[in-house]
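Design review, sub-item: ligand-bound model
Attendees: FS, YL, KQ
YL presented the inputs for the 2-keto-D-gluconic acid complex:
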Amino acid sequence: MTVVQVGPLMPFLESALASDYAARRLPDTFADGAFDDVTIAVTSGRVGVGAALMSRLPALRAVINFGVGYDTTDVAEATRRGIVVSNTPDVLDDCVADTALGLIIDVMRGLSAADRYVRRGDWPAHGNPPLARKVSGARVGILGLGRIGLAIARRLDGFGCDISYHNRSPRDVPYRYAPSPAALAADVDVLVVAVSGGPNTRHLVSAEVIDALGADAFLVNVARGSAVDETALVSALVGGRLAGAGLDTFADEPHVPAALLTLDRVVLTPHLGSGTSETRRAMSDLTLANLARFVKDGTLVTPVAGS
Ligand code: 8YV
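KQ shared the predicted structure:
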């Protein structure tokens, strides 16, 4: 089995791949035939393995993805070619949900903005900053009630929040189901995006959904930038048609729309949802467990749906 690394990975994962599997990093450009022996590609949601790369790795049999999201890997094409794909579900639910709660509290209570206020010396100069919004008891809509969405809902239960959600179909949960993203948005103080990425969720948070949220409501995104129409979002935030946003993901990472950088009502984080040493270690361990299993018997510990 010949293993390659596609794109950058956590340093401890890169070291394990190099020492235990003699994995080389696939260069951005290479001559035809140079990697014809590659059977396994280890990658992450940042880069992935698209159809074009698959066609240049004729012996490829498995794509092992670090991360729960695998929207940068073409699973339909992989399946057509008999290539299996794994991801790292479950182990990051807590940290991504913690991040969502952090963003909700930060943007509603204005914590980051208040921190800047104090550091600028505005407190003695201008007194207390403007009043914020109450988090406990707020109406929160979760778009995408999967494993991460449920972890967010459980945390919000502890805050006495009124929780509703939208999924393709209702789940057996004690939360109110909304039949569409716009219907969900119309009835909440905060909309939290927790859907998976890819073409099915592209611009699910459309201009219409943002309008339905309205000038008193907030948007929090810990999923994928592609799930939100970022142009419509920026226009609503700049125009005061949305109260604020807490954003961990963006359409063109690592680039953030310049117009957001000067808005105090927006909290911006650099896609750090799963970014704790404990969780990234667990994701790395699960990545290596998938790799070891595939090398041993051709199966995966956590294959993605449809692969
Ligand atoms: C990672 C993520 O930062 O798991 C995911 O889908 O978005 C994050 O946990 C990312 O996969 C690393 O590339």
